[in-house]
Every structure is written in C-alpha cells, then in structure tokens.
Specification:
With 293 residues, this protein is of the alpha+beta class. It is 29% helix and 24% strand. Bound molecules: serine. The site of serine (SER) has 10 residues, from strand 8 and strand 9.
Length: 293
C-alpha cells in the first residue's frame, strides 16, 4: 500500500466510525505559546479536551503535519525517527472511550478489508495499573498475556512522566501498539492510544483528578506504518521518502543506498530538507531565534 493510500484508508475507516475528517492544522500553531511546532495531532483539539471547545462534533480524524526536534540526533541513524512526520489520529471529546479506541485500532490493523496485518506480529503495552485497558486487550480482543506488557509512567503515560513530573493539565494512561517486522530487527511502535481521563493539578499524591468527560487521543505514525506495509526495513525506504534520499545523494554527489557508509548523512539531509521546506511554506526562514533557529 502506498503512503498516500494508507493516509486515505485510515481517514476513511474512522469516518465509517462517525469521526469527522478535519484537515491538518498548520505546523506553526497560532495562539499556543507552549510549543514552537505542532508536535501531535491532539494539539489543535486542546480546548476540546479541556471541555471549553467550540466544535459541533465529538469525534474527529486527521492526518497532522508534525515537527519534533527531540529526536533529532536519532534521525538517519535509526530506521524510524524523523523531525517532520505525519501523524494519523482519531479523537473523542467526551464521546467513545477505551473499548472503542482499542477495538477499532485492532480492527483497522488486522481486518482483511483494511490493513490485514498478521495479528500474531502485534503486541501492546498498557500503563501499570490500567486494568481496564489490559482486560479489553486480553478478554475482548483476545491477545495472550505474554503480548501485553505493563509499563511505568515514563513509557505509558502521556505526556510521559506526567503523574510525578508534570506538566499540569489534561493527561492519561496510554497503550502502545508494536509491530514485529518480518525481516527481523527491532519491534516498532506504530500507534499510541492515549486515554485522556485526568487533569493533573500539582504534585503527588492525589494530583490526578478525573475529568468530567473522558477523551481519546490517538497517534499512528504514517511513515512507520507505511514501512510495515511496504515490507521495508526503514521509513527512509518507503515510496514517499526514498526518492528524497536518492535526490539528496545526487545533489551532494554520492550514490545513495540504504547500507552505504554515506547512507546516514544523506538520510539526515533528506529529512531536514523536507522539514525545512514545510517550515518555509509557512513563512519561517532560517535565523537565530525560536522556530527559525
Ligand atoms: N498525543 C499522543 C502522541 O503524541 C497520541 O497522539 O503520541
């Protein structure tokens, strides 16, 4: 499945579940001083999660342009990290919750009419004490216990470490879905389901207050899932990124191949040129401050 087809398939699946298809937000969020770049699909829905939004619907699906600099040193080195990437998301604002989010994720990934991935190659994680999510995966989806790991707040809470370290605000336990590639290699996280059910107020203990309405925020990596579907060992080998690597190699005069010694720097160039192009498109030019830097 081509990357463009995957994007369309995901949005169509969640439309069939009643989600309203919304366009990607801009990469440089307006009116949000807490971030320089849009880091996730949920960013444009912050008000809805807080219960003060104006939208007339309670379910949405998007493919969001994202830019994260936290993993910049991994770009080109690992198979799966980028600065710019696209995040497929489905969102509930006080509407559906864990059961639907988990069951629909499984259906989309494994059903023959959708991605038709082999369920035996998938495993999940849940937050330590999230028995509700564990039981849905185990008893309803039917995943065996050895493919459901319980991890701590640094792995399975969003934002990571929020209970003990903050920031204050909406947060919740999450459940991540991993794929074990056919060609061997490390498992890859393809989808994060966040159960946004708390407002964090101050330091522990008793700092996680249940929200009046429970929300769903999920993020699936477009490029990572395309790599799984295309059976390639790295995101940089998928149909939308390999041509950029080849073009970057041609421009700097090296014959790019994935395993060549120059593979790593050429992938970095391809990633950074893609990110910078999208930034320039939104009016940011190189400079020494904030987004420009
Ligand atoms: N906000 C969560 C994340 O970025 C899920 O979309 O992983």
């Amino acid at each position: 499945m081509k990357t463009d087809e995957l994007r369309e398939s995901y949005l169509a699946f969640f439309e069939s579940k009643g989600c309203v298809r919304r366009p990607s937000d801009v990469l440089m969020p307006r009116g949000d001083p807490t971030v320089l770049f849009t880091p996730a699909g949920m960013n444009q829905f912050k008000n809805e999660f807080l219960g003060v939004g104006q939208l007339e619907f309670t379910r949405a699906t998007t493919c969001q342009k994202c830019l994260r600099t936290g993993d910049i040193s991994n770009v080109g080195v690992t198979a799966y990290h980028h600065t710019f990437f696209e995040m497929l998301g489905n969102f509930s604002f006080g509407d559906y919750f864990k059961r639907e989010a988990i069951q629909w994720a499984w259906e989309y990934l494994t059903d023959k009419r959708w991605l038709a991935l082999d369920g035996d190659r998938l495993s999940v994680t849940v937050y330590l004490d999230d028995d509700e999510a564990y039981n849905i995966w185990h008893d309803e989806v039917g995943l065996p216990a050895d493919r459901i790991r319980r991890l701590n707040e640094h792995e399975n809470f969003w934002p990571a470490g929020a209970p003990s370290q903050g920031p204050d605000g909406v947060c919740g336990p999450c459940s991540e879905i991993f794929y074990h590639p056919l060609h061997g290699g490390d498992e890859v996280e393809i989808w994060n389901l966040v159960f946004t059910q708390f407002n964090r107020v101050g330091d522990p203990p008793d700092n996680l207050r249940p929200l009046p309405k429970q929300n769903i925020d999920t993020g699936m990596g477009l490029e990572r899932t395309a790599a799984v579907l295309q059976g390639v060992a790295s995101n940089f080998e998928i149909d939308s990124l390999k041509p950029l690597c080849l073009a970057a190699g041609e421009t700097v005069g090296v014959n790019y191949s994935f395993d060549s010694p120059q593979g790593r720097p050429v992938r970095r160039i391809a990633d950074h040129v893609r990110a910078i192009t999208l930034c320039i498109h939104e009016g940011v030019s190189p400079g020494s401050e904030k987004e420009s830097y």
